[in-house]
Amino acid sequence: MHISRASPSLKSGSLKTKQSIFKQELPYGLHTITIEWAEANRQTKNNKEQPSLFINVDSFRVTGQPVAVPPKEAVVRFEETNAFVQFKGIWKTNVSVLNSGGTVKYSGVQGNYAQFNFTGKKVELVANTDVNGGKANVYVDGKLATAELSISIAQASGMGSPYSNPQTLPAGIIPYESRISV
């Protein structure tokens, strides 16, 4: 069995909104999920720095409630605008009816990250993918998350995969490219 780093790619041939890029089941309790801009997004051409690729956060889906709200066994969506989602660095906002809740925050700056604290037993990160999408490092409770399997973008987009619906993904599956840990 290969264990893969949770470094999902947010790159696709065209804009795809509300994509499940990471999903993990956890023991019920207080947890933190962090999505961080990955070094792999840095681009150079002829030894010159080029515009970086972007990561974005549209929403989080959790089974349970955010910190300070009584726990409840329901799948609840929390938009990136929720007060429990903290952003480090400068993030821009894209406004579109295609985004969950009408907005998505994005960044192309090294060191920037978004963090969400929640009480629950399952978390799913929802983001958009497009031609300028980059890699994200996903951490759960301060540790780089891992997944036992990854499936291709073609499968995740619904072309013949039993996992085309993000709600049916097995625990630990991320529907985008992962890097092999060494």
Q: How many alpha or pi helices? A: 1
Described by strand count, sense and barrel closure, the largest sheet is: 7 strands, antiparallel
Q: How far from one another are the termini? A: 13 Å
How many β-strand stretches? 15
The fraction of residues in strands falls at: over 45%
Instruction: Give the rounded overall mean pLDDT.
Output: 73
Radius of gyration: 16 Å
Task: Indicate the low-confidence ranges by residue numbers.
Answer: 147-182
Q: How many separate structural domains?
A: 1
SSE sequence, one letter per element: EEEEEEEEEEEEEEHE
Helix- and strand-based class? mainly beta
Shape: globular
Proportion in helices: under 10%
Notable traits:
DUF4397 domain-containing protein; 3-stranded antiparallel β-sheet; mainly beta; globular; 48% strand; disordered C terminus
Describe this structure in words.
The chain has 182 residues and is mainly beta. It has one domain (4-180). It is 2% helix and 48% strand. It is built from one helix and 15 strands. The strands form four sheets. Strands 2, 6, 7, 8, 11, 12 and 13 form a seven-stranded antiparallel β-sheet that branches.
